[in-house]
Design brief:
87 residues; mainly alpha; 4 helices
Length: 87
């Protein structure tokens, strides 16, 4: 894995159930603050990471996977309404 991938994997592994972050927050915490889209690519291409805990900057869920993401987040106690995480 590249240094970027290793850093992103570390951030994702540290997320606790019920914790929701944005792609940008993951990128910044990994040390690559402008790489939010690359975080999305990483999640799309790597299984085994809690992708459902990552949302867009305005709380939108992953397009095309809203039902599955909603289900996983609700199990963890996160409120979702109209395709967005409720703050």
């Amino acid at each position: 894995m590249t240094s970027f991938e290793t850093a992103v994997a570390r951030v994702l592994k540290e997320l606790c159930p019920g914790e929701v972050v944005t792609y940008g927050e993951v990128a910044a915490e990994a040390g690559f603050p402008s790489a939010h889209r690359a975080v999305g690519r990483f999640l799309r291409n790597n299984e085994g990471y809690p992708w459902w805990r990552v949302v867009t900057s305005n709380g939108r869920l992953v397009p095309g996977h809203e039902a599955e993401q909603t289900s996983k987040l609700k199990i963890e106690g996160v409120q979702v309404r109209d395709g967005r995480v409720v703050a």
